[in-house]
Design a protein that fits this description.
It comes from Nocardioides acrostichi. This is Right-handed parallel beta-helix repeat-containing protein. InterPro entries: Pectin_lyas_fold, Pectin_lyase_fold/virulence. The chain is about 15% helix and about 25% strand. It is α/β, with parallel strands linked by helices. The chain has a domain at about 1-30 and about 300-630. Helix 1 (about 1-15) runs antiparallel to helix 11 (about 610-630).
Length: about 625
Amino acid sequence: MRRVVQLFLTVGLAIGLGVGGLALAPSAGAHEERPAEFPDGTGAVPHFLGYDNARARVVCKKSSRARIAAMPAGRLKRVNTRLLRRCDFHSIQDAVNTIRHRRTSIYVLPGRYTESKWAKAGRSDYCSHLATESDDPLGATAQYIGSLSGDAVAPEADGLAAEAEETSDPIALSYADQRRCAHNLNLIALFGDATPHDDSIACDSRFCGTQIVGTGRHQGDVLIDNQFSKLNAIRLDRMGGVYLANMTFQQAEFNSVYVLETDGFVLDRLVTRANDEYGILAFASDHGLIERTNNYYNGDSGIYPGSGSDLNADNPEFEVTRYAIEIRNNRSHHNTLGYSGTAGNSIWAHHNRFYDNATGIATDSLFPGHPGLPQDHARWSNNRIYSNNTNFYTEYVDNDVCDRPMPERGYMEGAVCPVVPTPVGTGVLIAGGNFNSTDHNWIYDNWRNGTMQFWVPAPLRDEMDPQKLYDTSHDNRTFANTMGISPAGAVRPNGLDHWWDDEGHGNCWEDNTSSYGEATNNFTLPVAGCDQGGSVFEPGLAVKDAGFLSCSQYDRSDPTLRHPPGCGWFDSPSQPSADGASATGAGAVADDSDVQQSAVVATEDLADEGPLGLLVLTAFLAAGGAIVLRRRA
C-alpha cells in the first residue's frame, strides 16, 4: 500500500518538475527587501532609561509649549516643562544625527512632526543610481510605492558625476546603500552597524541602545505623520538595544515602524495607523518586545513578526528553547490581518486583542525570500480573537477606492486596501507551519472558521526538493481554547470552530470548549489526543482545497484577479446561529466521488495557472488518488 501511495506522489511531482522553465512568480503577499540574516542572539531586551538620562537630546515643535501648559498638574507636566527648556531640535532625525554616545535618549515633546526637511530632501547622484539587492525585484510598473513612482526630486551634485538622464528607484537596497542613502525610502532612519562591509551585522556604532520616547500623556500627543512621503516612517536597521515608545506613526506606504536584523528592541505604547501595508514590521530580529500598541487601518497587518530568529529550527520537540519576540497587551483591529508572519518563528503572542480584521492571526510558509522557512514554533495564548469578519475587499477594492492615488483613498477615515489575500471571517490561520501552539484563547464570533489549518506545498516557496513537498503542517496543537463564547459569557459562535485539510502528522485539538457543546470541525476521521501523538500523516484531501491555490493569485490592481476564479475567501460569510447553521463555515467530505469530482474541478481551475499550477495540482491529484486507494484497501 505504501509503495502505491509513494508512486502517486512521485509521479505527480515528477510531472510538475518536468515542465520546462518552471518559475515561481512573485506572490501577492511578498514584500521586497534585501536578503536578510538572523542576528547571533547575543543581545538582550532593553529597558527604559527614564526621563533624566544624562545622554539626551530634546525635540519640540512650536506648539509644544501650549500643549504642555494644557497638561494637568503632576509629575509628567513637570518633566515636560523641564525638558522644554532644553529643547534644541525641531526634527527627530536632526537630533539622531548628533548622537555621539551609545544609550542616548531622544525625548520628543508633544507636537506633530512631518520631518519635512527629510521628506523633501533631494538625492545625491549616487543615491539616484542604485542597484537592487533583490533576487526577484518588482518591475518598474509594479504598484508598490506611489511616492517613488511619481515625480522624483532631482538629484543633487555630489562630485561623482553629473545628473544622468535616468535614475533608479530600487526598493531592496543593500544595507550599505540604505545607510548611505538613508532617506531614499525612510522618513526617519537609524543604522547601527557602522561596518557594513564586514561579516557581522551586529550593532557596533554610537547609535546602539538609542531610545526615542514621546513625553506626552497619550500616544497621540506625539504624532509622526509620514504623509506617504516615504516608504517607511521610521527604520531601525541593525539597531541593537533600540527602544521606541509613546508616539503615533501614520501614513506610510510600507511600514510605519520597521525593525530589521536587530538583536534587542522594544516597541512600547505606539499607535500605527492608516498605512498601505504594515503598522509594525519586525523582520529577521531577536530579543524583541512589542507591547501596549494599538494598530489599525493597515492594508496588510497591524503587527508582523516575520522571519523571527529561527531559534528552534532544529528543535524536534514541541517545547521551545526560547522565544525570539514577545508580543503582549496589544490591540490590532480593522486591518486586513491583525497579526501575520511569514516564517513567524519563535514568536510568543499573549494577552492581546485581535478583532474586526478580515483575519485575526495568520502565519504561513507561502512566500519565498524569507529566512527561516518553513515556519515553526509560534505560540498564541490568552488572546481574545473575535469578530474578524470585516470585508475590505468588497467595501474598498470592488468599489475602486484602491485605484485612487494613495493619499486620496481615505486611509485616515478607515479605508483599508488589502494587499494580501486572506479568508474573511477567520480567527487563527496556519497556512503551512509546524510546532505551533494555539492555547487558552477566547476565539469567538468569527463567521467562517475559528481556527483554520492547511498544508502549503514546498514549491510555493521555491523549495524543489521532492522530499520536502509535504514538510508543513505538522505537530501543531490547539487546546484549552474557549470557542464561540466571549469572556463575559455571551454566546457568539464561530461558523466552524476548527477547519483542517487532514494533512500532516502530530496535529491535535483537545480540551477546547465550545458554544455548540462540543467543538465543531470538518475532520474526516477522529484525531488522537496530543499525548497519543495526534494525527497520523495523511497527504490531505483534494476536496478540502483551502483556497490558497486560486486565492494567492489575488491582485487588487487587476480587475480580474481582484476575485481570482475559484476563490471564495472574499465572500462575506453568513453569521452563524447558535445551533451551528452557517453558509460557509462547515464542510465535510462525503465519499470518494467527491474527491474525484474535486480533482476534475481543480484541473479546470489550475489549467491556466502555468507550471506552478501544474506542479501543485499534480501533488493534490496524487494526494486525492492516494486517499481513494487507502480507503478501498
